[in-house]
Amino acid sequence: MRLTLTLILFTKTLLATQAQISTFDSGNEDWRCDGDPQSTSAFWNATGGNPGGYIQMTDGSTGGTWYFVAPAKFRGSKCDAYGKFLRYDQFADNHSNPNAFADVELIGGGTKLVFDHPVLPFPTWTHYDLFLREDAGWRVNTTNGLVPTQAQFKQVLSNITSLRIRGEFHHFAVDYGGLDNVLLESNFAFDLDADNSTGLFNGDYRADTSCFPSLPVVGNDPVLTSEGPIDSIVIRLLNGLPSESISLPNVPPPLQVVLYGPQHLTLINPGNGVTLDFLAAIQMLGFLDASMHPLQGTRQVEFKVYAGCGLAGTQRAFLPVYPPPSAGIPGDTTLCVTGVPFPLFTVLKGFPDPGGVWIPATSISGAVFDPATDGAGIFAYIFPPAGECAGDTSWVAVELEIPPILRQDTTICYDEILYLERPRELMEWVWGNGSQQSEIAVSLPGVYSLRGRTEYCLFEDSVRVDFYSCKECALYVPNVFTPNDDGQNDLWQAFLPCRWLRFRLEVYDRWGSLVFASDNPEQTWDGQARGKDAITGVYVWRLEWDADLFGETRTWRAKGDVTILR
């Protein structure tokens, strides 16, 4: 363990030459507090630091122990900090009753390293140097935990996710403390766009839009710095098509290159390469699409830098490539309005490029036309211009066919015949009875179906045919009969030659007694009355029946007499 305790001023001119540093001369630099602070945002004081400004926090006295929490610039890959120092100045107004919490927490790669100071901060500025190595007093998880291995320590530094510095050292009182001049000695930096002129502020690079499918991968101001040597840089085209590649025409000595394919290579340092060699190499990288029809879009090239502790940094170059697009040759199609959805793109002819915009939009995303919801019309397929790069436009004309109908359900007179004809649009058809004639004659009520197809539609329809009476029934009742068993005119009945719904016939003798009755016009009277031959004479009959007329039920009545002769 190497710990230096000093009360001398830690000059900020020296600190300014380092990468991860907070001097708090102009603000709190996004430092936060957690645990039990009065505020989660660290308070900034413009004066009173060591020297200049500093940050401060007061105990919230709600339980727990509060910490200063480092901002983003102290997180990420800091693998070149291995074997160097975490330095800072601190004061605490009271450290007379500390608890067993760690003074520093460093978390990364799924592991937490903690450090417990042998000397606690005084009410005046106290300086700390924490050696970043496994044998310098660090422990895993807790202050009495295991000593970390070298692999664990490097794993934490390769991807720091949290750095916390304890600020509370009196467990049962409202105390306060300050922090200044925090320095993590890591000089590694990898930035593909140092001046952020392309609009990206996280170290990535965006090239100017290219109208041709070839351009440099990296701009003219990449930055790569590291205390230790760079082992390698792995470069990959992430979303490239088979026709696309990244190339390196020359490899600056002493670097070596390993090609894994047209979209994947690795720059290797055999031992005496420096960062300037790597910078020169990546600035010679080029992108090329050798296809006959390059596609518009933004390609992504990933750079992974490996140093002594493993992956040190990752950045991406975004390459907007907009070669002259082809929207294809216009096409047209006719669809059945009852058909299934289909993509408009399949109608275009020629060799259209994917990725254009359809106007108007269809009801289903992805320019899928649904005949049930999208109307017929012209749909434009557009590649808008990108900067100075030309676009292109094509279109698809869509017409809809509405299937024919057989005819509406209908009702006709009983003595008529209805001829059902197949719709002219049908190219193939078959009636429900198996007939393939152009028309069928309908003389009975029922449902008559027809199936077939038009040029674009499958067809299936049916019609219900009903019948009704169109004229009154012509009733005939004989006025005499001779029931003498001679085989001639022996029976008597009322003739009702129509469709009836209810029928009632009654015959009475001269004394008003019922001698015959029937509920069916087909039933005859044989001249018997109560099992005996009725006497010769005149008999009175009455008839009432219900029948349909033009679809409505009506009641008719009739009466008369009939004479029996023997």
Protein described:
The chain has 566 residues and is mainly beta. It has five domains: 12-186, Sandwich (Jelly Rolls); 190-321, Immunoglobulin-like, CATH 2.60.40; 337-397, no CATH class; 410-468, Immunoglobulin-like (Sandwich); 480-564, Sandwich (Immunoglobulin-like). The strands form eleven sheets. Strands 1, 3, 4, 6, 9 and 12 form a six-stranded antiparallel β-sheet that branches. A six-stranded antiparallel β-sheet has the order 2-5-11-7-8-10, with helices on one face. It is elongated, with a radius of gyration of 50 Å. Residues 1-18 have low confidence and may be disordered.
In short:
With 566 residues, this protein is mainly beta. It contains three helices and 42 strands. It is elongated.
CATH C-level class of the largest domain is Mainly Beta
Mean pLDDT: 91
What is the architecture of the largest domain at the second tier of CATH?
Sandwich
In terms of DSSP E residues, the strand content is: 35-45%
- SSE-based structural type: mainly beta
- C-alpha termini separation: 148 Å
Tally of helical segments: 3
Oligomer: single chain
Radius of gyration of CA atoms, rounded to a whole number: 50 Å
Shape: elongated
Q: Outline the low-pLDDT stretches.
A: 1-18
CATH topology annotation of the largest domain: Jelly Rolls
The portion of residues assigned to helices is under 10%
Descriptive keywords:
single chain; 566 residues; mainly beta; Jelly Rolls; Immunoglobulin-like; 5 domains; six-stranded antiparallel beta sheet; 3 helices; 40% strand; elongated; disordered N terminus
